[in-house]
Amino acid sequence: MHLEPPEPIHEDRVWSDERWTARIIKNEDDDGWAVAMILDGQAEPALVGPWTMGRDKKNPKPLDKAAFNTLVKTAQEVIRRSEQQRHAELNRNVSITVGGERIRVALAIEPNEEGATATLRASNALGEELAQVAVPPTFRLTTASAEAWAASGYGRPPP
Q1: Structure pTM?
Q2: pLDDT for 138-151, tens place per residue?
Q3: What DSSP designation does 152 have?
Q4: Fewer CB within 10 Å: N-end or C-end of the chain?
Q5: DSSP helix/strand/coil, 6
Q6: Contacts for 67 with CB less than 8 Å, ≥ 6 apart
Q7: Greatest Cα pair distance in the chain
């Protein structure tokens, strides 16, 4: 079954395309207005920020194509940065030298509802995998722990 994308909305306080909806909302903290950017299918807004007052100083400035496009770009950047931060929290790597060869040791944590898992990998300068072992998601990858793992012959590293 193929669903047609919803019709675009171009109103003063709601503007949407097939992926994003900008909705101007009353700022409950003061007399101003805010705009919420919601990606289709998401429960929470990707971005909520202040919105400009209109000329009458009571009502919000109406949304328009230029403002909507800027809001979409900003919301996409917020999502991208959030994903980068999440990736950085779950993936770490260090470089060490073993026998004169540069080795990259990477820790990848896979979040899971039943419990996270983690994998420690070593690869050479050409990207060829030298070793891979499962480790607890609490494993701390440091230069020292990577060097100790390499010195052990890439066996099971200590916790």
Answers
A1: 0.69
A2: 999 999 999 999 99
A3: T
A4: N
A5: coil
A6: 15, 22
A7: 73
**Residue range(s) defining the domain that contains residue 118:** 90-151
Residues in the chain: 159
Radius of gyration in angstroms for the set of CA atoms belonging to the chain, rounded to a whole number: 24
Residue corresponding to tokens 């995998």: 129
> Is residue 56 included in any domain, yes or no?
yes
Q: 97 with 147, same domain?
A: yes
Give the CA angle between residues 109, 114, 116 to the nearest 5°.
10
pLDDT of residue 84: 94
d(CA 50, CA 26): 10
Residues 40, 23: contact at Cβ < 8 Å? no
Phi/psi zone of residue 140: left (φ > 0), alpha (ψ -120 to 50 degrees), beta?
Answer: beta
Please, where are the H alpha helices in the chain?
Answer: 65-90, 143-151
Alpha-carbon distance of 46 to 3, in angstroms, equals 24
Domain-embedded: residue 105: yes
Does some domain include residue 33? Answer: yes
Q: Could you tell me the pLDDT band of residue 18, with boundaries at 50, 70 and 90?
A: confident
100: left (phi over 0), alpha (psi -120 to 50) or beta: left
Tokens representing 109? Answer: 């944590």
Pair 102, 59 in one domain: no
Is 116 contained in some domain?
A: yes
